[in-house]
Design a protein that fits this description.
Layout lengths: L1 H21 L6 E4 L1 H7 L1 H38 L5 H54 L4 E4 L13 H8 L2
Length: 169
Amino acid sequence: MKKIVAVLSSFVLMAVAANGFADATPPTLAVVNVQQIFQQSPKIADLNKKLQAEFKGRQEKLVAAQKSLQEELDKFKKESPTMTQKNKDTLQKKIVDDQASLSKDATAFQQDLSKEQNKIMKGVLSTLNDIISGIAKKNNYTLVLDSQAVIYAADSADITKQVAKEFDK
């Protein structure tokens, strides 16, 4: 008796679901390859160049400081057997201080660079989201997915070129 009720309940649920979904229009899907846009966009390349130019001076100072520190270490290794204890201690203290300073400067540089990259990325993603939403609304797409997360999509569902064209304007 329980089996019959379960089977009948299943048929009723399937009939209700089929009737309810019969009137619904299937979703219209599109995909966009955001990574491709990032890799090929001249706008992104320009943003990267500006960022590199902004941080180039600090990066060069860090490289010079690192080179100087390495020279001090080499000098210490080479000359320490013949140095007085006072000179050894002085040079060791200078090396330790320079290492600490370099480490602090490198950390600050990396944090500032990451902060600026995140700021730029946030603006770019916001712009891309606005463009994708606009294209989706214009073409009545009900869902747009990143193509990196999709196993298969027909070429006609790919709106990457449209998005890239609009983004690079």
